[in-house]
Amino acid sequence: MIAHGINVGDVKKLQDAGIYTCNGLMMHTKKLEEGQVKMQSRLEEEEEAKAALMSRIQRLTKLILVSTKNAIPACLNDVPNHQ
User: Fold this and answer.
1) Helix or strand or coil: residue 6?
2) Mean of pLDDT over the chain
3) What secondary structure does DSSP assign to 22-75, as a single string?
4) Among the four 30, 32, 60, 81, which has the fewest Cβ within 10 Å?
């Protein structure tokens, strides 16, 4: 790896991580990139699910507000506030 321009300190760190060849380094890099793509995809899926849940919560909240507003007896609306 030193012949390919990787300094001695970095070679030691790679070897400590179990990477001994340039091919091994390329394979390790590819695995990391694939993992990053999977994580990004999962994050996007979670964001879509979050948006769908927030939309559902907003609709249910509006429904509850409308239904409770209509459930208040008319006679209670005429009672003056005592402050």
Assistant:
1) coil
2) 87
3) HHHHHHHHHHHHHHHHHHHHHHHHHHHHHHHHHHHHHHHHHHHHHHHHHHS-HH
4) 81
Q: Tell me whether residue 59 is exposed, middle or buried, using C-beta atoms within 10 angstroms of its C-beta: 0 to 12, 13 to 18, 19 or more.
A: exposed
Rounded distance, CA 52 to CA 43, Å? 14
Q: Per the structure, how many domains does the chain have?
A: 1
* Structural domain for 64, as ranges: 2-69
Residue 66 has pLDDT above 90, yes or no: no
pLDDT at residue 51, as a whole number: 97
Q: How far apart are CA 25 and CA 28, in angstroms?
A: 5
Band of residue 48 on the pLDDT scale cut at 50, 70, 90: very high
